[in-house]
Design brief:
Elements lengths: L1 H8 L9 H13 L1 H11 L13 H14 L1 H54 L1
Helix pairs in contact: 2-5, 3-5
Length: about 130
């Protein structure tokens, strides 16, 4: 949606091959992949024992057993891996589109140079 909005403000339409990538990129950006990852790791206290349990040994043991039973560390790692894969996929698609666009521009420049050379040759001959 963000890219479509920017393109519409410029008065242009998205190229057809960009639409699926823009949808995926917008979805990833709207979900804010990296901030969610940091939220899970840093602010959720899922990876460390909260201060509340330090003074209460029996509750701390219960908390640790509950975390082990629910496999919290493994689940957080799985979520982080999935978020990392989404981020890498988005970067890959962005670089692919950038390379494709660059190649198209290079060919346009080559064709324009060839046309200019033909005009110069025609000027010399006639």
């Amino acid at each position: 949606m963000l890219l479509r909005t920017l393109w519409s403000r410029l008065g242009a339409q998205l190229p057809a091959e960009w639409k699926p990538v823009c949808v995926c990129t917008s979805a990833c950006l709207s979900q804010s992949v990296q901030p969610h990852k940091h939220c899970i790791n840093l602010r959720s206290d899922l990876l460390i024992t909260p201060d509340f349990y330090w003074d209460r040994e029996n509750l701390e043991k219960l908390y640790d057993k509950t975390c082990q039973f629910l496999s919290i560390n493994r689940r957080v790692n799985v979520v982080n891996e999935k978020l990392e894969h989404c981020s890498q996929l988005t970067d890959l698609m962005r670089s692919h589109l950038s390379e494709k666009h660059s190649l198209r521009l290079e060919w346009m420049i080559i064709i324009l140079i060839a046309i200019e050379v033909m005009f110069e040759l025609a000027k010399m001959i006639f």
